[in-house]
Amino acid sequence: MFGTGTSGRLPGLSVPSHQHQPGTRSSGGYNATTYNQSYATSSASPSTASGSLQDLPSNEPTSTSGGSPTHVSTTSLNAQKRAYRQRRKDPSCDACRERKVKCDATETSPCSECSSRSHKCQFTKETNRRMSSIKQVQDLQSQLAEAKHQINHLRSLLNERGGAELDRRAIEMPLLKLPDIAPNLERRQGPPTMNNFDHVRKNIRIYGRGIFKSPPPYRQLASQPPYSFTPPPLPSRQVTDRLLSQYYDSIHRSYPLIHWPTFQHEVEKVYSTGNFHIMPQAWMASFFAVLACGTLQTMDSLSQFPRAEVEGMSYLDISAQALNNWTDELAIDHARASLLMSIFATEVNLKSTGLVWLGSAVRIAQDIGLHWETGPWPVVEGEIRRRVWWAIYVWDRLLSLEIGRPLSIADEDCDVGFPSPVDDRFIQPQGIIRTPASYAPQTGLAAAIPIVRFVSQLKRTLKTAGIATHTLQTYDDYFHGIMSSFPEQCHTVAETYLDPILLSSVLTLQVARFHLYRHNLSVSCRPAERADALRRCASVAQDTAKYISRSLQIPPVKAESSDYSESPSQTWQARALCSASNMLCMHLWRCMLILCLRTDYHAALTCLRLSSIIGDLRKVNVACGRNLAFFLDRLMDRIHNGNGNHHQLEQDEEMLAYVSGDMQGCLENSWVWAGSEIGLKLNNTQALPASDPHFRENGETFEGTHLPLRPSPLLTEKESREWGGWERIERMIGQLIEEQRSRLSQPLYYHRPPHNPGKRVHLAPDAAVPVSAVTSLASTSTNTLSAVSSSRISIANII
């Protein structure tokens, strides 16, 4: 994974500072030696070393002998500096000073050390009282600086927009408090150890039974309930090995929920006995959920995916039956299986079902205490507990962004260390072993955590009518801090080869940026703000296209793979399919909408190449292609009618509504539904006729009545076939490139004849054009445009 990056805070807010700290990684990559040393001695969560100003070396000049006045004054000044530094100690009470621990006392409350021991927190030394006053002054100075910043912002709003706009917008925008980019690994101090208290604990467990449970780490787990249904037969070993390999290459890279060596050993035990009776029922639920997710990535042929999806649904049904949520003895396998079922349901475009299973995973994880740092646990168990929790946390954030639903996990309820960014083979019962010097940290979960940690703040920002410029700048600074913590190959300015498998992880930050920037496309914002939103979204789309183009380069030859299951011989298409997900398909679709509206057709073709490779592997990808074909039809109509220049399209409310995409599916951020019918009135007045394509082909009605069925949110088979496929979209973008080149090649005094709709070239779905032809057209048009910009073309040239 990328790692958790550099440490820093944003200004008043959080400005990233890139000072290297032990135990964290610098902007260039992980300090592998320091990182692994921090894990070598303990199975608990890693901690970072922090330094203070007094730890830094002094830069004072060395005094020389002599009795000149200058020497005397210099010596006196240095003495004053040393005395001042000696006074600048952290304020500590008498008890903390004696115990030599950090004191967190304030002017109004005692420190936690004295509170836990019921001691009086007192300060008897003059230096401590003086330093306490200095700290109070510093706090007041910080508050004054923040107040000045707000006053300046309000004054600028007043000058630009007047009082009404000031009341509407400025008061709505709270001061941003984005989280630290680096992990804050300071754990909350627990109560003191209660010695000789075993008899009390035993009595509480016995006589509290039926009233309350012990906290999860101290809970005595009962035996798993017997099987409530007949265990299914084992799938063939060949099928299991294939699906496990596909699961490892796709889902496990992003969500390492399972300690793979341990899981493989358990699978071997099951197949050696020939049944599931030796394993808990919850483990069997996880096993079939893994197989179901393995069917999401078929490496043989995309034509086999419909059959693979049916196979996956059958595995998911077995997993749901085996999960048995009626039991009150939950285990980590219950949380793991629920999360995998949420992922599978979402990837087959059953997003509401995915949301329900995610809620189940969150509540199970909280019930068994995964959200709280406890221990000490055995090394493998402690690491997997952290990984499962953070996988649920990341999935909750990403799904909330994608489908516009509230978060299920509050940040203040999450107090657990970050997982280790090393491969499972380095996590052994005796500890996390040292990785080779050439080992590259895993990419996936560790990279997503620092990105999604600000989603709760982002969701609050998205509730406002519009986002102010200074707020966008604050987020940009934060994004820059996250990007600087990534390995160099994952930076947007890098030019080196990028493994296609990493695309889904790398583009997570771009997805978050896009969700932020497009918020100001709303009609509630001013035209200038909407134009700026389009520009910012286009920059995200162009960065996305750069990542994809880098993945098309020839990969460097490696002496040996850092991943024991990785297959370097896979083609670009196969490795790109490993990163295919609903989130990636949706992001590519949003990027292509913006790029086509902004006439950046070459970048749109780059994104299109990845979407066409994914093809039917994701149902949502087909729906995105169908929507994009519709959008391009409308765009070409605007251009042919003379309404397709840059400024006209940015002010066209219909086109802006189309390019906003799934914003219109979010209750809080949509705007096209204002004034529409709702509820029963909508259902009673817009019944579909039998001829409607959403009406079932057999003309089925409800209970013998004449009321036709309502449209499904998913595409019918007919709709999935008739939009023309990705080849048609390639041809449409190719035609737009040709027309753009033709327009730019005309002299200023040339007047194009009016368009004749009767002679428009119709792009039939069956008129196939190879991808190479479109790519050649794109490169040719680039050369032509550069030639046009460097020399003037006359009528003689055209003739």
TrEMBL record:
Residues 1-91 are annotated as: Disordered. The keyword Cell membrane does not apply. Keywords: Coiled coil, Metal-binding, Nucleus. GO terms for molecular function: DNA binding; DNA-binding transcription factor activity, RNA polymerase II-specific; zinc ion binding. GO terms for biological process: DNA-templated transcription. Gene3D superfamilies: Zn(2)-C6 fungal-type DNA-binding domain. The keyword Transcription does not apply. Residues 92-123 form the Zn(2)-C6 fungal-type domain. Residues 16-37, 53-79 have a biased composition (Polar residues). Residues 38-52 have a biased composition (Low complexity). InterPro entries: AtrR-like (IPR050987), XnlR_reg_dom (IPR007219), Zn2-C6_fun-type_DNA-bd_sf (IPR036864), Zn2Cys6_DnaBD (IPR001138). It comes from the Eukaryota. Residues 130-157 form a coiled coil. This is Zn(2)-C6 fungal-type domain-containing protein. It comes from Glonium stellatum.
